[in-house]
Amino acid sequence: MLAGKRVVLIIGGGIAAFKALELIRRLREQGAGVTPVLTGAAQEFVTPLSASALAAEKVYRDLFDLNDEHEMGHIELSRAADLIVVAPATADLLAKMAAGLANDLASTLLLATDKRVLVAPAMNLRMWTHPATRRNVATLARDGVLFVGPDEGAMACGEFGPGRMSEPADIVAAVAAALADGPLKGRRIVVTSGPTREPIDPVRYIANRSSGAQGTAVARALAALGARVVFVTGPARVPPPAGVEVVRVETARQMLDAVQQALPADAAVFAAAVADWRAAHESDSKIKKTGKGRAPGVELTENPDILATISKMKEGRPPLVVGFAAETDDVLSNARAKRVRKGCDWILANDVSPETGIMGGAQNAVTLIHADGEEAWPRMSKDRVAARLAARIAGELGPADGG
Ligand code: CTP
Q1: Are 228 and 295 within one domain?
Q2: pLDDT by residue (tens digit) across 345-378?
Q3: Is the minimum distance from the CB of 348 to ligand 1 under 6 angstroms?
Q4: Are residues 309 and 278 in the same domain?
Q5: In the predicted structure, residue 4 carries a pLDDT above the cut 80
């Protein structure tokens, strides 16, 4: 799966560093060459000798070792790599990356590289949820750094929660997704997914039943064909796929903003179930009962239409814009009209009447509508719909220059 690929693996100093050894073994099993780089702190947890023995390669360390610089400095290490993986990525390493610090080999390499970087964070849950780490993670995600995990579970410090490093098998899957070769190699595609949440007051919001399953499947399928995917997701029930750039948003306006920031792109697929309306006036404090049995009125105002906004861009419009049409009545005629009204190239019409079980379910039945005609696809899993759509997009875009 990874034959001929070179992974530079930066091992940070955390208790999860021992899992990095298994990661080396599994990456090599898949055919990848692994160059380990150990931070100073990592050497307190694993020995350079064990990393080097498993990788069957020289280990680079955070020492100002003239021999290392002579043999292969940070620039050469980066040049040789197809992907840089940081596992475990400690809070300290993430902070350095976010700030652009370069005061040891690992951070210098990360600042100097133009290769993709995948991080597998591992830390105590309070460090993971600390506002400083939240800020750093958001900055790195915006910079295009890929994340895998962290998982939730029991931790070495005796606590339970998010912060545990992903299992080596999951990190290998994320590496494979990030390095996937395929007809979409060299293409950048934006995918929106999930519901949006529109606040009414600090504790209440308007949302919908979307699970994010279809958008997640589309992003995964596009990445599997080699695309670089920017996945803009609302608070979905299913976790985001591995190997894609994840941008998390809550509201429709944030989603539009994130999509605009992610451009330019070769294609954009709008699978999100965006709330059409939001509260016209968001209350800063919790709306209280009056005690007189009178319910408050919530005045609504329309949200921006993200698909229509992007489809109608005068400059920098992605060459292929794909929307979904969730309908309950007159599915096809509504979807045809929606395609024209919103100005997108393709629309996938689906029937979301409750009896179909599609909304929130595992299956979907879609009709692909474009300017030259329509194709009804048989009812199939959302994963198969996604794979078929990804293949169609690859066919439409053709090979990228140099791809
Ligand atoms: N969409 C969007 N921004 C919105 C509303 C919808 O980007 N504010 C996108 C969806 O992601 C989807 C397409 O537009 O790709 C159609 O969504 P749908 O809910 O079917 O259409 P609506 O615009 O909500 O139209 P209506 O409610 O009248 O059916």
Answers
A1: yes
A2: 999 998 888 888 777 778 888 999 999 999 999 8
A3: no
A4: yes
A5: yes
Q: Is the four-CA dihedral 154, 155, 160, 166 of positive or negative sign?
A: negative
**Residue 130 DSSP class:** S
pLDDT value at residue 70: 56
- Distance from the alpha carbon of residue 52 to the mean position of ligand 1, in angstroms: 53
One domain for residues 115 and 128? yes
The CA 401 to ligand 1 mean position distance, Å, reads 33
| pLDDT digits 0-9 by tens, 120-173 | 999 999 999 999 999 999 899 888 899 999 998 887 778 888 899 999 999 999
Q: What is the largest CA-CA distance in the chain?
A: 80
Question: Which of 128, 148, 179 marks a domain boundary?
Answer: 179
Element (H, E) at 151: strand 151-154
Do 138 and 215 fall within a single domain? no
- 239 and 348 co-located in one domain: yes
Q: Is the CB of residue 229 less than 8 Å from the CB of residue 197?
A: no
Quote the strand ranges of 18-159, DSSP E.
Answer: 33-38, 60-61, 83-89, 116-121, 146-147, 151-154
Note if 157 is an active site residue. yes
335 close to ligand 1 (CB < 6 Angstrom): no
> Mean per-residue pLDDT for 381-396?
94
Residue nearest atom 17 in ligand 1 by C-alpha distance: 325
**Both 161 and 187 in a single domain?**
no
What single DSSP character describes residue 193?
E
Q: Helix (H, G, I), strand (E, B), or coil: what is residue 167?
A: coil
Strand duo 300-302 + 277-279: pairing: antiparallel
Is the minimum distance from the CB of 351 to ligand 1 under 6 angstroms?
Answer: no
